[in-house]
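Section handout 9: paired folding examples.
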Amino acid sequence: MTARCTAQSQDAGKPQPVKSMAKEANPDWEVATIKASDPNDTRGQDFFMRGRRVALRDTTVRQFLLLGYGVQKSQLAGLPDWAIATRWDVDGTPDVDGQPSLRQMQGMVRKLLAERFGLQLHHEQREMAVFALTAVKGSSRLSANTSDPNGWLQQTTREDNGRHVEELKNASMAELAIILQYYVDRPVLDQTGLKGRYDFHLQWTPDDAQTTAPDPPPGLFTAIQDQIGLKLERVKAPADVLVIDKIARPGEN
């Protein structure tokens, strides 16, 4: 699930930066309303944060699972048809002040699934087609970030004249693998063997992009190798699969 995330607050009519949630916080939902999406609403799927408000629009249970657990569709088993087809709108606020990090937001989505959709699941390891994220031998393109080894990832995503630009600060290799997973069709496993945290700047031309740039950047796979000295290799390997034991439609409120 690719999400657009924005955050803003108001003070005397002027936008102010939203303070980050405490790193050790494990937020739940203070308030969350869920209702079936309006089929006549043409805005499409969306995810955003404004102040303390968190909203997910036109989103299926399968997409909640992809976001909350950071997995691919091939890593889900046992979903009923309605969980793939029926779309929901969620509006709510966390029970902790501040803007949640990616990991904290994922935790909130997992709690929403358990508390409001009655999700029960178990994990299995199954061999499947995956991408292995590995380091290119002799590459020196990685930029280490030593500002806060216990800090959280900062992510900025934008589109620019048909180019996709992804900037990550203070990201681990495991976090990079999760984010790259949004742009490919199979799970991405971190097999770099690299510890620590890094800054990444990636720009590439998506396969379906319409660009008028005179010198457009390469596709994703070439960009990963040329710009940050890593590569994605197609392999078969054991990967985590979420097997759904129970899930139900929520009572709308």
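Moving on to protein 2 of 2.
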Amino acid sequence: MFHKPGRRACRINRQQHLGNSSIRAGGGSGSTAHTPLSQADMRAERLSPLLALGLLVAGIRSVHCLPENVVVKDRHRRVDGHTLASSNTDFAFSLYKQLALKNPNKNVMFSPLSVSMALAFLSLGARGPTLTEILEGLKFNLTEIQETQIHQGFQHLLQALNRPRNQLQLSVGNAMFVQEELKLLDKFIEDARVLYSSEAFPTNFRDPEAAKSLINDYVKNKTQGKIEELFKDLSPRTELVLVNYVYFKAQWKTRFDPKHTEQAEFHVSDNKTVEVPMMTLDLETPYFRDEELGCTLVELTYTSNDSALFILPDKGKMQDLEAKLTPEMLTRWRNSLQPRRIHELYLPKFSIKSNYELNDTLSQMGIKKIFTDADLSGITGTADLVVSQVVHGAALDVDEEGTEGAAATGIGIERTFLRIITIPIRQKRCARRERAANTHL
């Protein structure tokens, strides 16, 4: 299910196989027919690993897009919203596939917007190969777009997403928590404030429990209580933590009637079912049946005129669909949607949460140096900082009223310590060779 709120935030969630799906659709002549999803037995099919591809960060294309009339200018070069959107969409799909691979048969829900913006924020302080790895890992083509343009693109995206809107709650922001005696470069502080609207809080990481509470309480407040514990632990060696958060809440334009919500069988696997609250709705809405890939798509609209795209794979088609999923396919689906009357649309009512440590995942995506031999000298002026952890949390509620979701990403940064490894000294007398020792200075 893709959540596409116009210029909104986006996230991603992946569910196990949830059985058969049912949509009773009316044809153009007013007749009633069942869509061939496998068995039209009035049970919801999987809310799908593809729910991960959309709902929490509201529409991969839109969420990462600048408004269409926004153009960032830099030394006579320009980058429009579509350029930024393309890179961010590629990153979202790449991250989704990595998480789905690492979490087979489990929910995979995350906000690509939150992760990408946090890493872009970090890149303000990166230099040399470390900077290149981060930006290329975010799928930016550095032969076509300059670093300055990337940061300005995120700046305009933040401004666009945080504009007040009727009937939609949406907020996106950044913050940094700085060890009290750590001296940051003035340029890093100013760029963080201007480009990423970052707040800054002095923090005593030598008391890690107090520091953890300070950061987690900040995130909990910004996400309306949805993300309660972003960091499970912090090292007393931490010098700096960067945080990004996303929160949104929207109501369906055509709401589900709670009186029609009933307990129904939900197929978790081919041989396991559970009872869940199943919502039902009769409405006309954009619809597309993809016979080639074996899936059905239905778009539901919010009162703000943003929308959520539900992808319902046929039984046994989930893995094949995931393998073939691309940004181009999503665009083709969107362009193929046509209004259609659906007499009986079934959707589970659910609440889900997820937490990830992303160090290994990002390394597999090519962002490695930040964890080992990082050059983050743009933060303090010295190349003695390294990323110790990247954590991410997301939460999503879907009910009769609408959708509420939140996500946050945290990047912990520590000082590196120079290790000098001595080589055993070979003595002249063989009898004394065993007395040579290694020493760490």
